[in-house]
Write a structure and sequence with these properties.
This protein is α/β, with parallel strands linked by helices. It is built from twelve helices and eleven strands. Strands 8-7-6-9-11-10 form a six-stranded mixed beta sheet, with helices on both faces. Strands 3-2-1-4-5 form a five-stranded mixed beta sheet.
Length: about 300
């Protein structure tokens, strides 16, 4: 009989929070990960944190309600283990520990604030190794609301992984430090000194939405000029036109352009000419880590 176990991951970002529930089972040759539920709630913690340095009462209330709902779903799906990880906004909020304590008391869910390095590690654990080829360079780029994670692969090995405080919500609220942009570009230029131009692997809700605006399939390479073309089209549209003509959601219409601008910056500095969008991210890495830990027991 096949042993099927179900795991959960809660990703508390700066632009929204997500719950992924995944069934995991093994065949003779590999482990199979099957997502059975994905729920995203557009709570923008970064709107508070990147401007005031704190999580406000309204955002805390919304976050608590969402986590409570997630907790019920985890139980209903029979999840054996789960982990709730918070990233950029929670890292920077001066009252994050107080908020986390109140949410734990109200919901029973313990939120962990992870570092940028751990975030990058979990992302690269989420199945990237299965998508890269020998003898090629890849640059994994995960653009969130508050930070951008970069992982450079060369010949299937991780050369470097890093995180920069640059994200879509920061750009919307004019909270991106120019020094951070310079540091991002310098990091990429330094990597390029002795390495070939990479193929970019894009991650995040916005680049997934960009994929839907092209004729490409998931995982199929998209040329850089297509990214430029779509960006120009989106810049020319008003918020209302993005809603009604492009059919973007209200919580995607204002952050798509900033996200594409970050990807354009990264691809220019790295010399990348192609991007692929396989739809993996932090939550996938959390699930895989939980499965490995469970298996080792």
């Amino acid at each position: 009989m096949i042993n099927i176990q179900t795991f959960g991951a809660i990703d508390i970002g700066s632009n929204g929070i997500r719950l992924i529930i995944t069934s995991v089972y093994q065949s003779l040759d590999r482990v199979h990960y099957k997502k059975i539920s994905l729920i995203r709630v557009p709570i923008r913690l970064g709107e508070d944190v990147f401007v005031t340095g704190r999580i406000g009462e309204e955002k805390e209330l919304l976050l608590t309600e969402a986590i409570q709902g997630f907790r019920h779903l985890l139980s209903a799906f029979g999840v054996v283990r789960y982990r709730a990880c918070a990233t950029s906004a929670m890292r920077e909020a001066s009252n994050s520990q107080e908020v986390i304590a109140r949410i734990k008391e109200a919901t029973g869910v313990q939120i962990e604030v992870i570092s940028g390095d751990e975030e990058a590690f979990l992302i690269q654990s989420g199945g990237l190794a299965e998508m890269i080829d020998d003898g090629k360079d890849y640059l994994y780029v995960d653009v969130g609301g508050g930070s951008t994670e970069l992982i450079w692969y060369s010949n299937r090995k991780v050369l470097k992984a890093t995180s920069f405080p640059i994200g879509t919500v920061r750009l919307l609220t004019n909270q991106v430090d120019s020094d951070a942009l310079i540091a991002l570009e310098n990091w990429l230029l330094t990597m390029r000194e002795n390495l070939p131009a990479p193929i970019v692997i894009g991650s995040g809700g916005n680049i997934n939405r960009f994929l839907k605006l092209t004729d490409n399939e998931e995982g199929e390479p998209i040329k850089f000029k297509k990214l430029i073309e779509v960006h120009k089209q989106m810049v020319a549209l008003s918020y209302e036109e993005k809603l009604f003509e492009v059919n973007l959601s209200p919580h995607r219409a204002d952050v798509l352009v900033p996200a594409l601008e970050i990807f354009i910056t990264v691809m220019k500095a790295s010399g990348a000419k192609k991007i692929i969008v396989p739809k993996i991210g932090l939550a996938d890495g959390i699930v895989r880590q939980l499965f490995r830990e469970q298996k080792s027991k």
